[in-house]
Amino acid sequence: SAVISQKPSRDICQRGTSLTIQCQVDSQVTMMFWYRQQPGQSLTLIATANQGSEATYESGFVIDKFPISRPNLTFSTLTVSNMSPEDSSIYLCSVSGLAGGPTYNEQFFGPGTRLTVL
Amino acid sequence: QQQVKQSPQSLIVQKGGISIINCAYENTAFDYFPWYQQFPGKGPALLIAIRPDVSEKKEGRFTISFNKSAKQFSLHIMDSQPGDSATYFCAASMVRGDKLIFGTGTRLQVFP
Hints:
Radius of gyration of chain B: 13 Å
Oligomer: heterodimer
Number of strands of chain B: 11
Shape of chain B: globular
Order of helices and strands of chain B: EEEEEEEEEEE
């Protein structure tokens, strides 16, 4: 499987500020996704990060609030903008389409970024 | 129609027992059903997955049973161990490797 890292692993931020979360994969992947997991809850897809084009957002999530970049096949960022306490969650990136292996179509998750907004 | 319903919300099992978690879906376009295991402070880890053309898949102590006509699938953990204590999520996607719809999760506790 791919080795996926996220930075930062956790952060405490003030209301009204923005935080950019990085996701780095050790191999080229076709698909990258961003999920949100609120405390004690399930995972909800925010968007699919498309390489070289605008991300595809799920219902309830907008680009102004969660801008996403994906400059190449191994890296993506998610920004949480103008944060409020309701944005306190774990943000997870995931990948699939790992080149050159039997797990090509499996989806693997990073360790997550735990965000607390005061 | 995009939901995946999961039960129970929590489960307590004695060591050596069988843990059973159930999921149901409505959208017949779903074509891939993975299960993920998540420990506190970690990202979900893929455990086992199945497609609708297979009724059962076994990997070690973990088995998925799939009932296509009932639109239900379940995870069975045989000989449950304290190390299996975690939260388990079922999920579904229309295309393997594409975006996932997750169930609500089941917190499993296995006591010695």
